[in-house]
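User: My instructor asked us to take a sequence, write out its structure as tokens, and then describe one feature of it. I'm not sure where to start. Here is the sequence I was given:
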Amino acid sequence: FTFNISEAAAPHTIVGQIFAFDDDSGDNAALEYFIDSAADHFSIDLFNGTLRLEKPLDRETVAKYTLYVTVTDSGTPALSASSTVTVFVNGKLQQQHQMLYYICSLY
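Assistant: Let's start with the prediction itself. The structure tokens for your sequence are:
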């Protein structure tokens, strides 16, 4: 999974969204999203997978972030899937306006 964000983006800007689905039904199909890495510049919404910027970016300091996202269902036993998410920081004039969505599934 790959996203791009401008170094001029303000905190709380949406970077993108990870979608997951589960073949279970009812409460067992409820999903939760987590960032496993120590990524203090980003957060992920626990219930809908929206990835947000939390701190200002400086492309000259860090041009790429690698995040590890895990999605867990509410079944017993709980199942999970993990993926690497790469966020590229574009210069202020290089930003491409795009929103990407990715889907993973739990089996």
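For the description part of your assignment, you could build on this observation: The mean pLDDT is 85. Try explaining in your own words what that tells you about the chain.
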